[in-house]
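Class prep. Sample record?

___
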Amino acid sequence: MLLDYLKIVIIVSLIPVIMISLYISSKVDSDKPFAFIFHLFLRGILSCIPACILEMIFSYYYPNAPKDLTNLFIYTFFSVGIIEEFCKWINVVKASDDYTIDRIYDLVIYAVTVSLGFAFFENITYTLRFGITTEIIRDFLSVPGHAMFGAFMGYYLGMAKYHQGERHYIRFIIYGIFSLLMPALFHTTFDFILSVESNYVTIIFFIFLIIAYRIIIHKINNMASNNKRIRKRY
């Protein structure tokens, strides 16, 4: 019975992962090896472990979230946003030195893949704790949310990689910082809005989602249509 339930949870969790992966990869003619993509997906799953440990350590020293909005946003940034995105970011950065990366859009594919691995495992743990209804909600909100954070990460990492080695290292540094800061900020805002007690939270949340998705879709569409070469393969 438990095994059958776990199978259903895994299958349902994979549906949004597969759909988003197909959407992201369909933007370009990608010839990336499946084995490496799957490896990144597994790394995304494994990145949940250090993220969980760091979040537990943070909550041990700061167990109570502040009530005023400014401090709550800062608290959410350091307790969730920067921790989870850094654990994903470090895996994507390692992948950015792989020989299969020769165009800037490759980083979008890799960052989204790692993020989907993270979201997939997180989705399963939440579902086992809170039930299948939670999974369905997360399939429509949290999994695409993680993919969006990953897309921001990949976009700015791709731009940083493109400018790497040029005379003007300032662009490389700025894009590199943004590749962690932007997904962390969007992740923080995502969780922050949901944690605020307000009658208008649902409206605010969906306005935020619409704006964020429009921004990142515009960015990745531009990047896909102007998929600049980074370097030749080895």
Summary: The chain has one domain: 2-25+32-225. The longest helix spans residues 69-95. The mean pLDDT is 87.
